[in-house]
Amino acid sequence: MCGIVGYVGREQAAPILLEGLSRLEYRGYDSAGVAVCSAGEGRLEVAKAKGRLKILSDMLHGGADISGTTGIGHTRWATHGAPSDVNSHPQVSRSGRIAVVHNGIIENYAELKAFLKEQGIPFASETDTEVVAQLIEYFLETDKVGLLEAVGRVLRRIEGAYALGIVSADVPGQIIAVRKDSPLILGQGQDFHMLASDVTAIIQHTRDVIYLEDGELAVLTTEGIQCYSQLMVPIEKKVSHVDWEIDAAEKGGYEHFMFKEIMEQPDALRRAISPRIAEGQVVLEDFHLDEAYLKSLEKIYIVACGSSYHVGMVEKYIFERLLRIPVEVALASEFRYMEPIVTQRTLVVVISQSGETLDSMAALREAKRLGAKVLSVVNVVGSSIARESDQVLYTWAGPEIAVATTKGYSTQLAVLDLLALYLGRLLGTVSQETYDQGVAALEALPEQMERVLERREDIQYYASQYFNHNSVFFIGRNLDYAMGLEGSLKLKEISYIHSEAYASGELKHGTISLIEEGTLVIALGTCGRLFDKAMSNVAEVRSRGADVLALTTESRQEDMAHAASGVITIPDAAEIALPSLGVVPLQLFAYYVALMRGCDIDKPRNLAKSVTVE
Ligand code: G6P
Question: I need a surface site. Which of 124, 352, 422, 485 has the fewest CB within 10 A?
Fold first, then answer.
């Protein structure tokens, strides 16, 4: 989704903006642009180009062609109007003296545009964002107010979601930042200040950040940041310190972020798990959901999007087994429109790596409105979802840059596994034996995962056998089915191969008609108690000509080898840890297949890392 960066200080802004934008490329975009103000001449220069950021950067010779020490930059992921130079941001007002970058959607833009056109104001682009730039200028001219007041008037008229960065040629040395339902952070430095959609864009300049709340506005100058409430009353904001290292957001010798992040999983899991286990017990520090409330729970709703939703699908099986409480998993984009049955005795668990996914955020608010408490599992510290939840459990995976999530997914699983054991103990629904086995399995997980990663050449070999297939089915039961959903998504996201995940038992109710000679079926059979069923399903598809690549545990390898064309193994482990181990070969398979097909692995077409529009 769109990325925003802004800089005001003593250095030339354009090179800093271009560098910041390069760190936001991972979010997914189709065009880029910058606007820079030069104080002395009261000049505002805008440069933008469709396509990769490199086109813009080359056009500006790395920023050297555009001078000034205040500027805003943007990577655009098209919503209103096709990707094009003219639809790229910054969008400017008629006079070219106001420039705006925007992430989100102005829902009532058509009505505002019609009004402005009636006033004789011509529009250059098809974007909703241009309305903001034009409307600011309209208020400046007709109401004879200052820039801040004009922006305030615009905010009272626009509806929707937005993070905005605004500069004016007439007030050089100043950036106005606004946010509502779209992410925006402010960076505080010595003699400079910045704004950005996420911390990766500014971390090499400063780690001191201010999180703006919905409806708040800020004026950034070289000397400082002044924040205002929705009612335009000056407010003091807390400055937080981000502890991510810059190297964590760099490739460090790996060809792709996705591969680096796959390989980082054991360490990420150590960070997520070790501090939460002490002397064989799950310890959740700062967990303040009331015991009486937890004991009164009638239902748990897990709400998320994409891979985080798939984590929810795994955890439904784990939570229901350990807690004996009904667990419903909902897509966040559906949740708020389905009149969910949520009461004060429902715990809503929102899972989000970025903590900024708009649908998940909206679901969180709906859940709270309905009286539920919200517990979120989030990676990005200080993100919107984390801040609005009643309780947050961080995954501590470090920055995840590749669009296709890997360490984000596996640390979410680990944190929810820990939560399931913790609640099982609290509610008295889990036996001592299962609890002890679960805790031991999670403690052993990072090391076991290292063993899976060491055998990556086997996966590479299978990828070389199958990368030409055009359609792949993942089948499995129970936890294996839920894991298959993620394996299938990984493959289609980055290799563009059509792929589906099916609950094995459901296959014969229709989908089996698609199995023919040579169809690739990836059969997941890690779950010991369902292994025989997995074998029967393998036989079923093989007898119809499918080529079967199976995934099972080491102790079952031989049995499976009789049935499947190829077998990948993971170490034997307690059930709770199987999806975490099993997903790794599936991530690697997707990665190697995409590599062999020459795909743009870290930035797959049409996808965005953090989806901040509905
Ligand atoms: C996007 C990403 C997915 C991710 C989903 C949910 O679609 O491409 O990888 O799973 O958003 O993101 P979240 O940050 O809420 O986990």
Answer: 124
